[in-house]
Structures
1.
Amino acid sequence: MKSCNLRLIKFLTLSLIAIAILLLLFIYSGLYPMGADTPHNKFTYWALETLRDRSVARAASNIKVPENISSSERLLRGGPDYNEMCVSCHLSPGKSETDFTKGLYPSPPNLTEIPETAFTKAQHDQRRFWIIKHGIKASGMPSWAPGHDDQRIWDMVAFLKKLPELSPEQYQILTSRDAENSSHAH
Ligand code: HEC
């Protein structure tokens, strides 16, 4: 009985070492396609999606959403920033694609659409804040923390809440720096 257990342990250990060696050989072989125009296979896609979603959910879970997240001041401050820094990848009302949405992999989500998710509104805001602040590794999504403090990032989260409801005209008004300046004046 004992020697049987020992043999099993030996077999498992050797199998694990063999798998590790095969994996290393595969990584060094250069066979995995890294071009953005070749989608991941189903397993890699699932693994990366799950890794990202679980990691963001965990990191964002304790973030406190400001009480005035729906205020018009935040909306007016967030709009011009969105238009200057995000629109080329995340689109605006009436625009359905850009070179970035066509060429990036993963493709940037269209933030003018109401997202289909199981998240509550607060979880959604927490996630968005975290993603805008820290970015997402190995995707086109940059971290915006350098040069933008937390308040400025919350302003963009506030704008994103309103974005799916805007017409192209409303978008233009809300994202002009004039709208932002007149809100400061009052
Ligand atoms: C160069 C392209 C690019 C720019 C510019 C960019 N993003 Fe992104 N963004 C992405 C990509 C790609 C993803 C998806 C990453 C992934 O799925 O792994 C993403 C994801 C996101 C998400 C998560 C969406 C979700 O619910 O899963 C938010 C929110 C976001 N970006 C907001 C912004 C904001 C705000 C800006 C401007 C300050 C911005 N992004 C600028 C490419 C970009």
2.
Amino acid sequence: MKKTLLSVFGISILAISVQITLTSSSNGRAFAANSGNTGAPGEVTTCRSCHGAGFGTTVSIAIKDAQGNPITSYVPGSIYDAEFTVNANGASGYGFQMVSLNSSNAPVNGFSTPTTNTRLVTLGNGRQYAEHAGRSSTNTFSTQWTAPSSGTGTVTFYGGGAAVNNNGGTGGDGGNTTILSLTENTSVGIAEPTLRDELLVYPNPTRNVIKLENTAESVKNSVVEVYNMKGQLFISENITLLQNNAELLNVTGLNNGFYILRVTEGNKTLEQKIMIEN
Ligand code: HEC
């Protein structure tokens, strides 16, 4: 009986301490307190409200492309690195939180693959937060960010960060917020692969035949078309191009002048102006 009482007591002590650890702010405000504190519309309390303005704390968000360069405009569907930095003098721990919204303040989200000091939490209002996973000894946090589909328009990242002194409370700490807006890049489509580097077309000008040669690979289903400068089609042929083996295209029936030769292989095309002097 004594033993049972003791272990029940022990378990409840354990449960209480687990509860305290899980709800502690040091575990991230969305994870531990169901709270967004980034300064985004609808979030009245920020890190600074509780942690004050110590350490001269400033925070920043950078969305970087594959080359590590910060972008100001996103390409729909592309994957970027989202980096959050807390700058402070003399702090010993760091935390943050960020969220991405569209211009109507609806969640854009898109965070994935966080680094070990970073956690992703989605709250009941649909907003996905990237935030610290426990007090961090380093001042940068990162996660991937997949840009939304085209037509989403401007995306704004709202972020709050805190630099802390590890005293287990908020006294002596410093917090701040930041905002980063990215416009949607509507001018870039998917880059069209071209045959230009691997296909030789010669001679030019030519008489009677044009030689086509693929230097990179053999391709079974190339379509070769010849148009005049008004866009009228004169020749359309399927040909197999063996690597480094010139195929001949007969152009004897064409009047002298300029034409456009178009070769299509799958989703790649080459267009070249040719001159025929029969
Ligand atoms: C409503 C008040 C409140 C807000 C808002 C708040 N915190 Fe805290 N935070 C606390 C309290 C209280 C503690 C200490 C107890 C604990 O860990 O829960 C704390 C502790 C921390 C710690 C650990 C500090 C230490 O010394 O151990 C970090 C890191 C932290 N918060 C980061 C943040 C960040 C980042 C934000 C904004 C996204 C934030 N907090 C917003 C109240 C707040």
3.
Amino acid sequence: MNRSGLLHIASLLTITLTAASGHAMPADLYFSMAVTENSHNHAGSNLLFLKFQEKADPSVIAPSVVISPRVNGNSIKMDGRLDDWDQRWFTTLESRVMNNYPLSEFYDATAVPIQIASAYDQEHIYFAVRFEDANHDASLQRRQWIFDGTQWHNAPHTAVRPEAPAGHVINKDATLAGREDEDQVFFMFPMVDQEGNFRDGGMGCGGYCHPNLVASGDPKTHLIGDETAGMHTSLPGDVADLWHWTSTRSNLGNTLKDGHIVHGEGIFNGRMADDGQSPDLDNDLKAQNKDLPSQPAFISVKDFQAGNYAIPGFKTEILRQDQAMPIPAGMNFAPGVQLPYSIVRPATGSRSDVMVMANYDPGTFMWTLEFKRALNTGDAKDRAFIPGPSPLPPTLPAVLPGNPERGAKLFADLCKSCHGEQGEGKFENGAWIAPPNQRASGSLIAKTTSINRIERLRTIAHEMAPPKRLMSFVPISQQDAEDIASWLQRQSTR
Ligand code: HEC
């Protein structure tokens, strides 16, 4: 027998051995992925399909299909570099803006192309993600403390860089609180999905997106967003696994904030932490006791001993819990001293299930991230990637980034009568008649206009805050919703 014949038998043997030793392929699934520039405004795809493969076949890659071929254990080195990934395995997402703060005190998201790949071996699943940072900054300063000589404040937010993709957004001059300075990457994997969001043509994470702006007060006196951040599954029992990587809070611990999302109503935030210790601790007296003022609680032992806090403008970059000490009573800080808001510590338990190695390149403004988790953690709050029945791959075309000209016409015909010329809403006698929707995402519009939501809300009328009136069913497609959103997001909120 010639050499290639031998090789052929050898590869057949490998397959048989693999099957015999019980390492069958995990079931395919629908999932969601989003990238957030500075905390609130995210872009990505609410519905993707993950196709496991015994042998890599990149020909099935589509705007909504990500492949996960089998690799040999240890062939992927966790180092935040993607040179050991086959470049043909990457899917480029038709990324869309998915923010949901309709009067947006935050500046808008920009849909940068996001590339994603996956792989699995006998024990682990891997993901690789890379994207150009929308504001060309690594955003490592969420809520950074700064001392003005008398008091502590949150350092100003990194301004929008004119040359960055976010440089053209319409509300780029909005004043932002420094607490938003953080990039994030979200994955959502369904576990119980009776509502059918994770299926061909379903809404994916869009079915759970932040609802109910009606609960917000007068936009002139109240920041829209404060009371509206609720995010939860729509039916009791539905639950999804949530991977939440954060550039400030979990990055230094090489992990992410592993959690899950459960059912709730109205403004209830159904995002729950998995069991175990979080990789971050807030450096804030108020976080430890809400009767205390909001100010830093800890400093670095090393910088304290070196007398650095007497130097104007001195900055402690990273604060680790085992190298931190409480601020001594009566201590004086020089003006301009900066302290981190997040204290780094080891995550434990199921909170630390996912290992993440991330790398920001200030030359190319690219983030690259590698994720690794056990296929089955054994925790009921984690999605297990195990063999089982697979849903069929998507047949409907992926929802594409919106067409604003088409959206303008749809809005004028179908929405303007209630939501106003530019989606500014109608606020009369202290209540919204129809809320503002200028920064609503396509996902939120699709969810709001869907008959499912109307039917569900009718049965739980108590979820409705004043004005206790429901939007009527507007029969539009998800692509229509995306087109409307892309026009709305170009309208000024001032
Ligand atoms: C007949 C009046 C009316 C029309 C027409 C209408 N809306 Fe609404 N809309 C409302 C009311 C009332 C609410 C608040 C109650 C609710 O959420 O159902 C609302 C809420 C919303 C919300 C916020 C949902 C939330 O959870 O906070 C969005 C987004 C929205 N509408 C988008 C649209 C779009 C896009 C159109 C056109 C395709 C449209 N609406 C047409 C009256 C209307």
4.
Amino acid sequence: MKRYLFGSLGLLMLIVTGVASAQSIEKAIKYRQGAFAVMGWNFGAIVDMIKGKRPFDQEDFARRAKIISDVSLAPIEGFLTESSEGQTKSKFEIWENFADFEGKMKLMQEAALNLSVVSLSGDYDASKRAAIKLGKTCKSCHDEYRKK
Ligand code: HEC
């Protein structure tokens, strides 16, 4: 049993390191950008609703808020070390201040979850406030860590 256990652990470690090295930097960059693109797409529609450019549809608003909240958990994994080169707008400073960057990601995740919960109530004003709050967390990170 013991030998079986250690054998599988060794195999697992081989698989994990194998996966990490095969996962190219290019893929990681595409992954984080893809996650952000999904968030941006849905947040754009939400912003249009709160600006009155698109009719407020509570169900659609809540569906999009949930997508943003779920996907907000994804991009951090795509920020592999040393992936500031290539087709990316990520600034090198991200890896110099990674704890701060992760903190900003967390604030965004909390604001997105809050928006998702609030939007279920159907309260337009509260949903609007929560969306503005979320938008500020996006902007504060972009201002500091995303190239123009
Ligand atoms: C903790 C930092 C951080 C937060 C928070 C953040 N972003 Fe970003 N975002 C970035 C970085 C860095 C990039 C550049 C990614 C790259 O090119 O490697 C980016 C890129 C993007 C892009 C461009 C994606 C593409 O097609 O290349 C969109 C759209 C975007 N973010 C939307 C959002 C939205 C909407 C929010 C908030 C709901 C948000 N971001 C929150 C850091 C952040």
